[in-house]
Amino acid sequence: MQKIHRREDIKLRLKDKILELMKSEGYRPMTEGEILVALDLDIKETDLLLKTL
């Protein structure tokens, strides 16, 4: 249970950092939903990769 809460916390902090960087670099910021979906996919792929190693 602790791992799930930590992952959500990391995901939210990453989302904030991504939005900040996109704005500072002049890119059209992704929506929060787009970022969270992208982070979810990445986390799932990483978990799958770690399980196969």
Describe, in plain words, how this protein is organized in 3D.
The chain has one domain (about 1-50). The protein contains 2 helices and no strands. The chain has helices at about 1-25, 30-50. Helix 1 packs across helix 2. It is elongated and about 40 Å long. The protein starts with a helix and ends with a helix.
Provide a quick synopsis of the model.
It is built from 2 helices and no strands. It is mostly helical and 53 residues long.
Spans where pLDDT lies below 50 across 5 or more residues = none
Described by the principal axes of the CA atoms, the overall outline is elongated
Provide the helix percentage: over 70%
Biggest sheet, in brief? Answer: none
**N-to-C span:** 23 Å
Q: What is the H/E order?
A: HH
Number of strands: 0
Average pLDDT taken over every residue? 77
> In percent, how much strand structure appears in the residues?
under 5%
Task: Provide the domain count.
Answer: 1
The assigned structural class equals: mainly alpha
Salient structural properties:
elongated, single chain, mainly alpha, 53 residues
What are the SSEs and their pairings?
Layout lengths: L1 H23 L7 H21 L1
Helix pairs in contact: 1-2
